Amino acid sequence: MRVAILVVALSWVHPAHAGDFSGRVVDDQGVGVSGASVVFYDQRLSYAIDTTSSDGSFDARDLPSNPYRVRILPPRESNLVEVYLPDGFDICAGDVFAVKRNNEVALGDWMLSPGGSVTGRVLDSEGQPVEGVLVSSLATSTADASQPRYADSDADGRWTLAGLSVDSGSDYQIGFAVDGWPDQSYPGVYLDDAEVISFVTSETDHIALGDHRLLNGVSVSGTAVGPGGPINGGVVEVYSPSQVVDVPIVGGVWSASGLPPGELLVWAEVDGLATTYFPNADRPQTRLAALDEGDVVANVDLILPAESRIVGRIVSDEDMSAISLLAYNDDRTVALSGDVDSDGFFEVHQLHGGDYTLQVFAESVGLISDEIRDDDGVAMVFSVPPQGVLDLGDIAIPPGAVIEGTAVDAYSGDRIYGAFIYAESEEHGTITLAVSDDKGRYDISGLRQGTYRMWADYQYYCDTDADWVARYWPNVANPVLNGSIQVRTGETVRWDPTMPPDRDHDQMDDHWEKQWGLDRQRDDGGEDPDGDGFTNLEEYQLGTDPLDGRNSGGCGCGGGRSGLLLLLMLPIFRRRR
Question: Residue 194: pLDDT above 90?
Answer without folding.
Answer: yes
